[in-house]
Design a protein that fits this description.
Largest sheet: 7 strands, parallel
Order of helices and strands: HHEHEEEHHEHEHEHEHEHEEHEHEH
Shape: elongated
Number of helices: 13
Strand order of the largest sheet: 9-8-7-12-10-13-11
Number of strands: 13
Strand content: 15-25%
Structural class: alpha/beta
Radius of gyration: 20 Å
């Protein structure tokens, strides 16, 4: 590792610039965001957008640099500026109560919605009116795990680069295309034009997920639209869908939280698509 000669000062302009990225207006202006922890930083160091490294800077304590020497080496190989930092500096740039000793500054990586459509996606998660950053990041992680081709965050949803969203994605943010700021009407219209069936997930939906699976209607390209956990999807959004589907509750639970429902729906589509295409089940080894 090409270790810097000195620890970076808490008063350094670079520390101040990284700290400002906690605020959305600065993130938007600079088109940069913070990724924290070894998993996210490792993914960022390996990620490229148009041939350019996503990771721009790395702040690491001496202890973390020794523990995660592979990440530091990957950051240097990616051309990122590496700073050794004290715990005080990490506390300045970190957005967590207990920093893990390694923080990256990354360039924005969202994908134009038109590019998502050009790729002819088979499985898409659309987050409409999702305001909780933890939920957004967790649904993104679920979509990644289920093998989705893309995630779309509408203009009524939370900022993709909110630190809580980035942490909740646990690195999945770097794995699949994510389009942001798309009006839900445009997202649905574009996906329909691309031959994708629109399924709105709603606890009061007319159609039952088990019935859809039994009927064999889920083997084709599909996009699941997920709404706000507290109040679901507005009627005007549900009206845009080809079907409004509920996850059946077989026990006594009142409902499922957003991330759990999203995982069930996305995996149901993934299994149906793989079965219809002769591919392995998503649960097989």
């Amino acid at each position: 590792m090409g270790t810097p000669a000195e620890l970076i000062s808490p008063r350094s302009p670079r520390v101040a610039a990284a700290k400002r990225l906690a605020r959305r207006n600065f993130r938007t202006k600079e088109r940069r965001f913070i990724a924290e922890g070894p998993q996210a930083v490792r993914e960022a160091a390996e990620h490229r957008v148009d041939g350019e490294s996503t990771l721009l800077e790395l702040f690491s304590t001496v202890e973390a640099a020794e523990r995660y020497a592979d990440i530091v080496a990957a950051a240097e190989a990616a051309g990122a500026r590496v700073h050794l930092a004290t715990d005080e500096v990490l506390a300045e740039v970190s957005q967590t109560v207990t920093p893990q000793g390694i923080v990256g500054v990354c360039r924005f990586l969202d994908t134009p919605f038109e590019d998502v459509l050009k790729a002819q996606p088979k499985l898409v998660a659309v987050l409409a009116h999702v305001r909780d950053p933890g939920n957004a990041g967790t649904v993104l992680r679920c979509a990644d795990a289920a093998g989705a081709d893309a995630v779309v965050l509408t203009d009524a949803s939370v900022d993709l680069y909110n630190p809580k969203s980035v942490r909740a994605s646990v690195g999945s943010l770097f794995h699949l295309p994510v389009a942001v700021g798309v009006p839900v009407e445009d997202a649905v219209a574009g996906l329909k034009a691309a031959g994708v069936r629109i399924l709105a997930a709603d606890g009061a939906g007319e159609d039952d997920l088990d019935a859809e699976l039994d009927a064999g209607t889920m083997g084709g390209p599909s996009a699941w639209v997920f709404g706000n956990e507290a109040w679901g999807l507005p009627e005007e959004t549900r009206a845009l869908a080809d079907a409004v589907v509920r996850v059946p509750i077989h026990g006594k639970a009142e409902s499922l939280n957003l991330a759990t429902a999203a995982a069930v729906c996305l995996y149901a589509s993934a299994r149906a698509q793989r079965a219809s295409g002769g591919c392995r089940s998503v649960t097989s080894s």
